[in-house]
Design goal:
This protein has 58 residues and is mainly beta. It contains no helices and four strands. One of its GO terms (molecular function) is DNA-directed RNA polymerase activity.
Length: 58
């Protein structure tokens, strides 16, 4: 499944590491990724991203 990054927000809470959130839309299925800016630096607006989901049995 592929989607598109439509928004990137920064969190200026004053902590040591800056945190950002990247929002993606997969044709109506919305996803928010929150984390350190170091880990999410590769996300850009209007870029395509791909999501692989696998069902796991418990």
């Amino acid at each position: 499944m592929f989607g598109r990054v439509y928004r990137i927000e920064g969190d200026d809470s004053g902590s040591d590491g800056s945190r950002i959130a990247a929002y993606a839309s997969f044709g109506g299925l919305l996803m928010r990724l929150k984390g350190e800016a170091f880990n999410l630096h590769g996300f850009e607006l209007d870029s395509n991203i791909y999501l692989l989901i696998k069902k796991v049995e418990f």
